[in-house]
Amino acid sequence: MWKQFLNKLPRKSQKSDRDLARNPNLGAGSGRACNASSAVKRASAAVFPASVISGIEPLLAFKDVSNSEKMNLFISKLSLCCLVFDFTDPAKNVQEKELKRATLLELVDFVSETPPKFSEPAVLASCKMCSINLFRIFPPNCRSRSTSSGENENDDEPTFDPAWSHLQLVYEFLLKFVASSSLEAKVAKKYVNNDFISRIIDLLESEDPRERDCLKAILHRIYGKFMIHRPFIRKCISNVFYRFVFEMEKHNGIAELLEIFGSVITGFALPLKEEHKVFFWRALIPLHKPKSLGVYFQQLSYCVNQYVEKEPKLASHLIQGLLKYWPITNSQKEVMFLGEVEEILEVISASEFQKVMVPLFCRIRHCINSYHFQVAERTLFLWNNDQILSLVAHNRQVIVPIVFPALEANAQNHWNQAVLNLTMNAKKMLTEMDDALVSACISNNQEQQEKVSSLAEKRKQVWEHLENTASLQPMMARNTAVLVAH
Q1: Where are the domains of the chain?
Q2: What residue spans carry the region label Disordered (predicted)?
Q3: What is the mean pLDDT of each run of 10 residues along the chain (486 residues)?
Q4: Sequence-separated (6 or more) residues with CB below 8 Å from residue 16
Q5: pTM of the model
């Protein structure tokens, strides 16, 4: 559409205008060139009244201006793209929308190449254009932001922004702009500031996965380029996690934020700073609590494992956190927790394991006896891990008496055949590990069962005595107490 618009202009006048730009000393045809340039500006101003800046027509191509004028043309095109349209009505402003889209494509191509160093006005104009389009700084009658997760709780499908054809190009521009070698951090930090970054992080709550993916890449680039903003970015991410865990329990961008932080953790210097450990304890571990854990579990597991690799002493803290937030009524989450426990036990040191082995295997004992066959099955698979079996063998005097009664109960009562088979396999492994200890456990378990049976029998006799005594008493008035002698 914009090419058709340009084609309507007189060809000779356009040529003269370009010749005049190349050689200012040309006298012939200068009047016609000025008239053509004025015609272009008038036509552009009719569509975009505020788009012409410093005498540079935004509809000109970058190749048609000198290098000294390219930055002014860049700013002029950015100004043109600051206009926001209503995309809820496809038939409205069709020509203007197409022209803006074409201009955005030009801007993306320009920053993708190796442009001159971006001047401070160019950085300001770039951030302004991105802010107006992405953060929706526009008059009240223009379209609103796409529905956030809190406003769309009853819908299963995400809400997609009808303006995505433009937004995608703005995101692509911002990503390439931030990553460009022509952008100096010391110049741009004034405009890519805390407010700009916090708005980017806020947008990660978008329901559109395409938008979240763009924002993730941009935020990662900003973190890499602007060292001065790194503490602020980490603080903002922490605050999002805190609100998610302890207040809202609903946020669409947790997985993306964890992906960003996963790459950040790999760059942490050793020994870990106290700030990073606090984030691990107060932000990452509590993320195991929400019901929507499955949405971001893979990214969370990667982050905590990165921490444990960096600082092995954190393994015991992680297991304590898992035990604190262990799901009692959610079998799917329980299976995920068991998988994470296995990953931790594969790398944990013997000393850290001994700090948590008693509470951990008390929980494992309950999981072995779970009536949900997937939980019981996943727990019994732990015995097939050589590293875990080695930890159990070195601490068998403590661990085997904890778990063996659960294995015996499964062997006698569990309804699932696969669980029964795995139970018998685990019992066989423990017997081969220490036959004398297992025999002692069997004997002790039998004694405990006899005590339980004896108590149950006594309780049954007491109830029978009470029922017989009550049956011999005459009918009493309602609400009158009956004293029964033993």
Answers
A1: 312-469
A2: 1-26
A3: 42 39 38 40 45 62 87 92 85 86 94 89 95 68 40 54 86 95 93 95 93 95 94 94 90 95 90 92 94 94 94 95 94 95 94 96 95 94 94 94 92 90 93 90 81 86 88 67 58
A4: 29, 30, 32, 33, 36
A5: 0.77
